[in-house]
Amino acid sequence: MVDNNSPNKFIPYLREDRLPHIFCAGCGNGTIINAFLKGMENAGMDFDNIAMVSGIGCSSRIPGYMKCDSLHTTHGRALSFATGLKVSNPNLDVVVFTGDGDAASIGGNHLIHAARKNVNLTVICINNNIYGMTGGQISPTSPKESFATTAPYGSKDYPFKLAELVATAGATYSARWTTLQVENLIGSIKKGFENDGFSFIEVVSQCPTYYGRKNKIRTPTAMALTMKNNTIFKFEADKMKEKDIIGKIVVGEFVNKQHPEYSDNIQKLSKENFGDNTLINSAYEVLK
Amino acid sequence: MEVVKISEKFFIQGNEACAKGALKAGCRLFAGYPITPSTEIAESLARDLPKVGGSFIQMEDEIASAGAIIGGSWGGTKSMTATSGPGFSLMQENIGYAFITETPIVLIDVQRGSPSTGQPTMAAQGDMMQARWGSHGDYEPIALSPSSVQEFFDFTIQAFNLSEKYRTPVFVMADEVIGHMREKIIIKDDIEIIPRIMPNKDESYLPFKNIENGTNPMPSFGEGFDIHVTGLTHDEKGYPDTNDPITHTKLVKRLCDKVLNNKDDICSIEAEDTEDADIVVISYGAPVRSVITAVKKAQKEGKKVGYIKINTPWPFPDKQIKKLASNAKEIIVVEMNLGQIYYEVDRIMKCQANIHLMGGIGGLLPNPDEILDKINKIGGI
Q1: Which residues, numbered 114 to 173 in chain B, qualify as contacts with chain A under a Cβ-Cβ cut-off of 8 Å?
Q2: Is the pLDDT of residue A3 over 60?
Q3: Do the Cβ atoms of A286 and B76 come within 8 Å?
Q4: A76's torsion region: left (phi>0), alpha (psi -120 to 50) or beta?
Q5: Is A67 in the B-facing interface, judged by CB distances under 8 Å?
């Protein structure tokens, strides 16, 4: 239950008994939590009806601080748990917090399939280009030649473009912003809630503790400046040659369309073929 | 004589009976991935769940299937998946998650020849220890092994009941023979179904409280409990507390004890003529069928032999077996692997009897005559 008389606007949404949180100084998670809650309010959501699901990693710890039902699951699998939860109780507004390693490496298969099925989930993917929780290893979004504890000579891998990948896989809303475009981010989170389908909001974020240290961008401010200087808008990128975009953070919306949602389709299938023939619908009832 | 009220009779396949049992138990969400020889369970539920307002979802793999039914269960719906050995292996991490978060789910494993892809269309019981120890860490699983189509129906219902009663994952360890065999089943109209209990919404409610009997009532998401569910070691409130040895010990011991302290309620075995038998044959699942035939033949030949049929391999019914086989000098364990439950029997009975393994792999049900030969050989010493 949210108490609107609290001195800080967003404190009532948090589990105060769990504070202080575990995030490092300068981490982007705080900005993203603020933007998330603002976007949620702007969309007119009922916070008591929100359920959060997450995997493993720094970003996945966010739901543990939110005063709502929250399922902190296994590494990479949040979207499959969230799919089951949404189908089980389609009335819930299900939000997923995940990261680049969680969603795109170990959970890559679940990511493209949840997008393909257009499950009505609002997914916030915090992409800090590194594994933070385990101490700074290379991730599937780490830029080529960036350094990490498992890439001591610079990464030779090519990074994923998550917002584009998910749009291609079938998501009905996909956007990318950095922690510096807070207003755009709030707008996309609002749109994500309003979209009746799979909404993916990638937030490129700073990890000064590991990414910054390993890549000699040592302060949160220096990281923010580097991100800012590297960012181009999608409408600009669309006019540029592919080789000129390499290493840039392209921000904007990648898809925004309407098409029927997964849990709705399942309910419709039952209703249209068999009517309202529900004998029981919950684990708490017994068949008479 | 008990008068059984029969509401329905069917002549169906084991896998179809399992699906019927799930529906009867109140399962309204199935998430799965096609795998031989379990696929007919998914196919039956894809057809029948929409008829009762339930949801069938085909996931991208077995890891996702296990995840989806855990999510489904926290959404307030009885949820199940079905698979075979390779899929069961993929599910193990999420199975551990279900244990530590005390999520009631039912997993059906229609076992086939293994390891690896092995023999997809042949029977085996090679996953018995995977059911016991497959996920990492300490936990006490509940598993049932059906030996007929009727039992596949009954035990699937029983699995749901136990999973709700003890807030824990429950396995039904079937095999290809039982999954694909066709037999008559009778559905009685007075089957007990255990519903989930919604906790009272007061300030003192703790979802993971260290209570005497170990099992707390379970809320579902969206009911205003603001519950936090995590696979990390958690306190009674559900909040992560990963560095305190006492929190971890208390939690894991409670999860184990809620099964171990209720073995009298959970364990189920059936036995015949074991009291004064020199030889006792112990088996579970499909091989029980051959064991019964062999034991009857041996008895006709004058042998003092009886059998024990284990319905619940996990938790292992050691107390019951010790009691029933107390006079046996020789014990034969018949199973379709190279020795799994044999080692459990050996562990509890080796001080008082000679334990013989009759384990077979390759995919065929043991022949009653082979078992009879073994009985005669051992009895002839």
Answers
A1: 164
A2: no
A3: no
A4: left
A5: yes
